[in-house]
Amino acid sequence: MDYPAFLLLLLSSVSSVSVGQFPTTQTIKDWAEQMQKELITLIDEASGMQHLVQMYHKHSPHFTVETNDAQQLVAAAAGNIEKLLAKRSEALKRLAAEAEKFQMEHDWREDSEAEKIVYYNAKEDFNQTDRKKNRYVPDDFEIDDDFKRLVSYNTTAVHIPTDIYEGSTIILNELNWTEALEEVFRKNKEDDPSLLWQVFGSATGLARYYPASPWMDISNSANKIDLYDVRRRPWYIQGAASPKDMLILVDASGSVSGLTLKLIRTSVSEMLETLSDDDYVNVVYFNDKAMYASCFENLVQANVRNKRMLKKAVQNITAKGTTNYKGGFELAFEQLAQMNVSRANCNKIIMLFTDGGEEKAEEIFKRYNPNQAVRIFTFSVGKHNYDKGPIQWMACNNKGYYYEIPSIGAIRINTQEYLDVLGRPMVKDHRKAKKVQWTNVYLDALQLGLVITGTLPVFNKTNTGTKKAPKYQNQLILGVMAVDVSLEDIKRLTPHFTFGPNGYYFAMDPNGYVLLHPNLQPMTAKFNEPVTLDFLDAELENAVKVEIRRKMIDGLTGNYSISTLVKSQDERYIDLGQRTYTFAPVKGTDYSLALVLPQYSKNYIKAKIGDTITQAKFSESLLADKFDEYGYTFIAPRMYCKDLKPPEKNQNNTEFLIEFNKYIDN
Prior knowledge:
alpha+beta, 21 helices, transmembrane helix
């Protein structure tokens, strides 16, 4: 715009006022009305609005104005997502069933020879010359369009944590029987070419995944230690155990000062990392008396924010006074017994971190835990000569387990093994436990971007016993089977061709976190944490949205038309607008899908040209290289078809446009 001309326009619109005389209200009103008329005229001329109206009238025989049926759109999109996840669930169930069969058929060998078990170690250096006899690197790696990295569809890859000995008997046996999964992985991929990563995460830490791919970019990681452990991933934690209410009890008496206290702090932080959003937790410490470690006086959801606050609070615990187990356990049991607060209402557990002591606190357990409804896990931390008998008794007499953490190297392993114990009831009641669970959004370890993962526990169904004693089924969880779904795949099932840029879909999980939303754009997503954005944080909150959130979590359908503040995607502007929220559950999952439409997106233009070739010719005028010829201007560079390749120079435009129209119709 010519700014001097615009200023002249404004000055000419202002009537003269005597020097020193303040303009009257009517004069100011006249100025405003005159400026309004001039600005409207200017905008009409600059935007070509009238010309646009004439174009619509001219071509009116070729289109109709249709109404977006929000309920129908949501139902269709939710149905498509349901079909996608159901298809992935079937692949998952097939994998879990075959894994259990392969393990049952496997003959356990104590004398397995490492050299005879050949596999591809994903951490293997491509350029390594002195490779072990039982190792190989596939020679058919190629960059794949779906994975955006080197993959081989002819084999699987294995990842073993750095702190796990690859030549141990249990690892060698698992390498042996899990090799058979390769054929099932490959068959699943043939049946569903859109499948992404298929992974088996073992309770021992071994992970086998398909297609094979190098674990990391060696050039960028030469001086880094690989700390990945599949048992610490969000999807494994969710799939390996049912929800739990956990009270972490920390001994803060004077005897734990120094290195022992540092080990306890680190152990508690690692323990918190084994919890998911389905769990509830709090931390209590005790010496002469018991106290809350943080401002939380009840169990709280184990989400990223709350766990971070608890970790920070644990770092501030100091050691002093004497050990009072009775006071600590009394407060712990009272916390778990509260009924007026949110909780998982499934497993109840107390985790005791201490250096040991002579007290058993038997009367406390008799009073609060006569039926062992609360499991007690005890951890003897540090190197010392205290009697371990009392804390071993606490665990063994309350359906728990006893662990020792003498040094920092034992923390990661021992703070996650309790999951195996909690998995036993799932194995016993395997029919009910065999339910596919879908995770929160998180960052894929193999650089696939943001994904959700379907998980299914894999149980040990072998029987043990002797000829004299009856056989019984092992109560062990072998691991977790998983398949990934990229958020990009889900977005493709929620097309917005008919409602423009400011209408949008969003999806929500049972914790109120969004997995689809225009504002879900994490700039600093952390590898080891789920990406959690609450719906009420994704948008500007009001009372109606609180109700929408609750109903979507409950799996209900609904429709609300509300006046709400809307922030632009660049978060620079806020506008008050009318929006319609329509939502419905995604059947077969705990997710819910919603469609948000502004008033101006309730209608759309639909071409009524029957002949596809004629329609393609009309569309041809919209190609970028035809703009000058037809006098068009490209206003809004919005990408609707990111996965539709543009025509090559020698390709027939008509063929491309026919394919384009089919893409939109589907």
